Please model this.
Amino acid sequence: MTRRSTAFDAESGGDAQDGEAAYTRPVPADESELVARLRAGDEPAFAELVERYHPAMVRLALTRVRSPAVAEEVAQDAWVGLLRGIDRFEGRSSLRSWLFRIVINRAISTGVHERTHLPVRDDELEHRDGRFSQDGWWVTPPVHWADEVLDRMTAPALAARVRQVIGELPDNQQTVVTLRDVDGLTSAEVCEILGITEGNQRVLLHRARTRIRAALEQEVRP
Amino acid sequence: MKLRWPWTSRAGGHDMTCREAVALVTAYLDGALGSSDLERFERHLEECPHCHEHLKQVRATILVAGRVHPDDLEPSVREGLMDLYRRWHGDDESG
Model:
């Protein structure tokens, strides 16, 4: 059997933390109250969590399984896992990290059986696209399109292209970029959920963003 | 053929190449660069319009990625999960 569950291997880099993480949204602060209500069997607390996290849980599962229906099942299983385990939840991680960890573990074990195709080779785009000379300067400098994309941010064509390219990424990159950029988790949370180092996480995120950026470029400057 | 951009020969010059700057973008955006790399990176960016645009493009990429999925739950999915909750608690109570 292929060992996909340990596939989060990328070269590690430095693990410096701190500083501003400008593009992440904050962890919800009122989780401990929700946990207490859940333990007390409060149905609206469960409904609130479902509202908050279910769509992201399905997206996370979809980075490991192919069928949306299977991803729904994985997320649903994770909710059962939450109901079963909430009394033992110790709050050492956020509730979201704990829940998402259940999702990814189930999605990985489901995905191993479900998938039949070979994973895409994980080339590093920036080392084969000839953008830089041997000396390390731009050979073909980027054409300017950032402002245009910001103006057209909600254009359906852009969103569709980005969704497509994310779906084509190697699994590990797909999982990391979905958690970080699509759903706005912090790098610390993502490392905790996936059990990887900050360095590994950053390598995977960097590769994923490189590909998505290139796809956007083709979309706006064909 | 060796290509050099004119601003590379300015007084002080670069001590970071464009390739390096591009490789450090993700660490920079995560606030994970050490102070010396951060200083070199920011100096490079001030002098290099291409890397400056590249950084803007990466930021735009992240913003677009954050908007590609609607976050609303389909009513049938919500109902299914609430049923699951009630069944769980029902089973729980009945032993």
Remarks:
- Chain A has two domains: 24-114, 125-220.
- The radius of gyration of chain A is 19 Å.
- Residues 198-220 of chain A form the longest helix (23 residues).
